[in-house]
Structure formats: C-alpha cells, structure tokens
Amino acid sequence: MGKIDIMFPMIKNWDFDVLINHNRYTLLNREANDMYDYAYNKNIAIINAAPYAGGVLAKGPSNFKKITYQDVSEEKLAPAREIEKICKKYNIEIGAAALQFSLKDERIVSTLCGVTSVKSIEKNLEWASTKIPSECWSEILRLPFSNKDPEAERIYTPG
Predict the structure, then answer these.
(1) 157 assigned to some structural domain
(2) What is the pTM of this model?
(3) N or C: fewer beta carbons within 10 Å in the chain?
C-alpha cells in the first residue's frame, strides 16, 4: 500500500517478512524513509514500487504532466523539471536516475516498475545499467524533495 500513516504502525505492531510500498520513495518524495529505516533494521524485506512517481520520472515533465497519477500545476512539476535539467546536462535519461535511485539503496531488496509493453521492459533494463556519473548524483541528491503523502490531494474516480 502507499499510506505510511497506516503501514508504519502495522509493521511496528506485527511481524512481517516483507513490505511493498509505492510512490513514497522516489527522487521527488521520501515519505517512506523512516519506515524503510525501521523495516531494514527489523530485517523486513522492502519492495519499493513506482520509482517513477506515476510516470513523470520515466517520461519526463516536458512530456508528462502528472505526478502520482494526477494532473499537477507547473509549480508542482518544478522539482521534476530540475531533475530533468540535471539529467540532460549529463546526457542521462531521467528514468535511469529515477530507477537507480531505488536500485542503489541498500535497504531495498527489489524495485517494482509498472510496464506496459516489451519495449518498456527493455527500457527499464537499459536504465538499470546506465552509467551515471557521481557528479550527476551529487547534483540530483542536493535537490529538495517532499516528505508528505504525494497522493494526499488525489481525487479518486471509479472506472
């Protein structure tokens, strides 16, 4: 699930072998960070899902103007635009940085990406093996990020 305010108390009160969480540990959002620390220290395997924040960190904010499945303002797209700008400077696709951010975290045993085709599977594999210079990482990791529920304002509609 995504809701940290529900998940975190549950993993503190019951024994779990694994947890899966989505959209709460990305280049844009680190709401799950404390929960991941706790789970890692309790030997709970962590599957980090949706490292692309619903697609914006795969397609880029120039091509996709949604974060965690909802339309957002230019102001809310600004952090993704900063990441995209740094990636372009180093000739790296934004998706590679987003995916490797999750893959390189020692707490995370698996990263779960949504795919829509064989081509998207191939793209994920390419991004996973892209060489990203340490200078690029330094710039990206200096950027601000949110610790708030990225779906707090999401409007759910059936269908």
Answers:
(1) no
(2) 0.93
(3) C
